[in-house]
Please model this.
Amino acid sequence: MPANKKYLSTSNWQRFSKLSAGFLGGYLVCLSFHFALAQWWNRAWVLVTLSFTGFILWAVLLLLAFLAKSEKKIWGLYLLLTAVFSLLTYIGKLYRSY
Model:
């Protein structure tokens, strides 16, 4: 059964933007999240679990990029989350020195 044409995107730019948001944006959010966790909890445990939870989180973020109506909003959300987690990583480095 083919997909309903009204739900498919017609713009190549929109497809590319959602695909890149899913792959790159999801990857950046996933890594920055785990790096922020590594600053506040045991680094070895977080980085070991990154191999499992990282893939699951990345796959969920990839799917969410295609469910979003606007590629600009999903890119904005992923960049905002990456910035927040990077800020938490930076704060963790300032206050928690190992």
Observations:
- The mean pLDDT is 84.
- DSSP finds three helices and no strands in the chain.
- The two ends are 57 Å apart (CA to CA).
- The helical segments are 12-40, 43-67, 71-95.
